Amino acid sequence: MSGDSTEKVALVTGGSRGIGRAICERLAKDGYTVVINYVSRHDAAMCVCANIKGDGGHAWIYRANACESDEVRGMFEEIRRRHGRLDVLVNNAGVTHSALFALTPWSKFLEVFEANLKGTVLCSQAAIRLMLPQKSGAIINISSRSGSQPQIGLTAYSASKAALTNLSRGMARELISKGIRVNAVAPAFTETEMLGTNDREALTHMGQRIPIGRIAQANEVAAVVSALARPDFTYVVGQCIELDGGGSL
Ligand code: NAP
């Protein structure tokens, strides 16, 4: 275990790509030792880790399916063994599914709900066991703007993210008396692989429908996560910060 009493440790699920990658890099710049979780793309996770170390930061990678309890248990045992603490958990890993409601079988709803909720539940419960003795910690769940404003063709995803936002509120209610702050961040369309296109014209077109005139960048989501993780953001509890470029105006 590291004997450094000033060390701060953050775990980001799905840290190998997209929004998770930007959050890992931002939290490393903020001084956290970052545990970069991934499920399949080892090389991508290694690349994030190398970038952080190249910039003078601290990080390591761990492969675990956030929805598999044994794998999550192994990941948290390793965090406990190496650091004995966890200051920030970002539940970022998630999947989407595009299909019209009428054509989405119940089995697909269950799949999307499991992918977007189970990892958050398992990782948060494991994180709480580390955070309780510290009497401090921040848990930040990456929800989606679709959770409050469903998109056509994304009903299963939108419903799962609505559940995730309310799960965050419930967790916040129970945990604030223990010194653990839970909040959520709900980005609108953000330029990552999840959008399913690299086509500039298509991305520009998506952005034109948003008051700010463009879709979000992953580092803009990471900036909000960084703020919510700050230990002096003590009075921000159970909030869902919507990053919508003015879309709700
Ligand atoms: P992405 O580019 O598709 O990346 C997904 C990440 O999640 C990858 O790192 C992937 O790991 C990891 N992952 C997926 N399932 C996992 C599992 N079971 N266990 C561990 N890791 C897992 O997605 P993104 O756009 O960055 O999205 C990140 C989060 O933001 C998601 O929760 C998403 O719903 C939310 N969000 C995205 C947008 C958007 O427009 N992009 C908007 C609102 C909210 P591997 O690399 O190993 O496969």
Task: Give keywords.
single chain, seven-stranded parallel β-sheet, Rossmann fold, 249 residues, alpha/beta, 7 helices
What does this structure look like?
- The protein is an alpha/beta fold.
- It has one domain: Rossmann fold.
- 44% of the residues lie in helices and 16% in strands.
- It has a seven-stranded parallel β-sheet with strand order 3-2-1-4-5-6-7, with helices on both faces.
- Strand 2 (32-38), helix 2 and strand 3 (58-63) form a beta-alpha-beta unit.
- Helix 1 (18-29) runs parallel beside helix 2, helix 1 packs across helix 7 and helix 3 packs parallel to helix 4 (106-134).
- It is globular.
- NADP nicotinamide-adenine-dinucleotide phosphate (NAP) is lined by residues 13-14, 16-20, 37-41, 44, 65-67, 92-95, 119, 142, 144, 187, 189-190, 192-195.
